[in-house]
Amino acid sequence: MTQLKDLRRRWSRDESYKAAYDALDEEFQLARAMEAALSAGEDLAAVPVPLARALAAKNVTIRLSLADLARARTQAARRGLRYQTYVKMLLHEALTADARRLA
């Protein structure tokens, strides 16, 4: 029988799998925080920040040029970030700056 770790190793060589897996990072973090709170005997209200962030967020799909995607991956790696996190950070900073200019 194929072991889960063997499947994960094989799938992790696939770029589309890696991108989809990386996109779930915040959900994995939230699940770990919830598990830690529950195992410590706390209720889920003990992790309000990740829970509030998860409830306030929406997954979206966008098309990026291959050049922009490669640049985002490279710059994110230099900062020790996942590229989705880096793109989200850039979008947030740009929207905030634009809102200030328009105000």
Kindly describe this structure.
This protein is mainly alpha-helical. The chain folds into two domains: 7-59, no CATH class; 63-103. The chain has six helices and no strands. Helix 5 (66-79) crosses helix 6. The mean pLDDT is 80.
What is this structure's SSE topology?
Layout: H1 4-11, H2 15-23, H3 25-39, H4 48-56, H5 66-79, H6 83-102
Helix pairs in contact: 5-6
Short account of what is shown:
By secondary structure, the protein is an all-alpha fold.
Overall average pLDDT: 80
Number of H- or I-type helical stretches = 6
The string of secondary-structure elements, in order, is HHHHHH
- Derived from helix and strand composition plus strand pairing, the structural class reads mainly alpha
Largest beta-sheet details: none
- Write down the domain tally: 2
End-to-end separation: 61 Å
Number of strands: 0
Strand content: under 5%
The geometry reads as flat
Tell me the Rg in angstroms: 17 Å
Helical percentage: over 70%
The poorly predicted ranges are: none
Q: What are the key terms here?
A:
73% helix; mainly alpha; 103 residues; 6 helices
